[in-house]
Amino acid sequence: MAERRQHGHRPQAQANKPEVILQRGVIVGRYLANQSISEISRELGLSRNTVMKWIRRYEEEGHVSTRPRTGRPRITTVEHDALLFDAAAQSPFKTSMTLTPELNLPCSARTTRTRLVDSGLASRVPARKPSLSTTHGRMVKPVLAHHGVEDWLGRVESYMRASLRRLILGRHFNTPLNLFSSILPYQMLQMPTGGGGP
Question: Entry's Gene3D superfamilies (predicted)?
Answer without folding.
Answer: Winged helix-like DNA-binding domain superfamily/Winged helix DNA-binding domain
